[in-house]
Amino acid sequence: MNQDTKNISIRRALTTDLPRLAELLQLLVKAERPFDVTLKDGELFYYDIEELILDSKSEVLVIDFNNQIIGCGYAQIRQGKSYQKHDFFGHLGFMFVDPEFRGRGLNNLLIDHLKKWILSQGITEVRLEVYHENNAAVNAYKKAGFKPILTTMRCDLSEMDGNI
């Protein structure tokens, strides 16, 4: 790591981290709004962060820089669909790194820690969701070994001009 990231550590999130994690969640929502016209206005909470921290099937990690949380993410063991090869898989979410600290490999470092936790649970399949048009995130996940397998599409029928 370079000089300005030498004081970086990855650690488990604590319930005392909840206020900062709530702030990071709102920064994540703000960053994702341009990619999703279906998001409601105002403050949004995608997750119950405290529930994730306390859940034995989840691992919430934070990136700590000089005792300040600058990033976060979680892994959660989820049940696969009956028609899929894997009975269970690790799902990654709440992946966020403060813009000031991006481009330093911290997202990959966080993902590596989450992958190790998933492996420790006896799971080898890892999935995540990312907005298709969020090129920076898509490229970061590809760099971490992820490949797209499904694209979600939508259609707002209220915007149709009678073409149905």
Structure description:
The protein is of the alpha+beta class. Helices cover 27% and strands 23% of the residues. It is built from four helices and five strands. It has helices at residues 18-32, 49-54, 106-120, 135-143, and strands at 8-12, 58-65, 68-79, 88-97, 126-128. It has a five-stranded mixed sheet, sandwiched between helices. A hairpin with an 8-residue loop joins strand 3 and strand 4 (88-97). The longest helix has 15 residues, at 18-32. It is globular, with a radius of gyration of 17 Å. The model has no long low-confidence stretch (mean pLDDT 93).
Pick out the low-confidence regions. Answer: none
Read across the widest sheet, the strand sequence of neighbours is 1-2-3-4-5
What structural category arises from helix and sheet content?
A: alpha+beta
Sum up the overall morphology in one term.
globular
Radius of gyration: 17 Å
| CA-CA gap between termini | 56 Å
Major sheet size, sense and barrel closure: 5 strands, mixed
Percent in helix: 25-40%
pLDDT averaged residue by residue = 93
Beta-strand percentage range: 15-25%
Count of helical stretches: 4
Per DSSP E runs of 2 or more residues, the count of β-strands stands at 5
Order of helices and strands: EHHEEEHEH
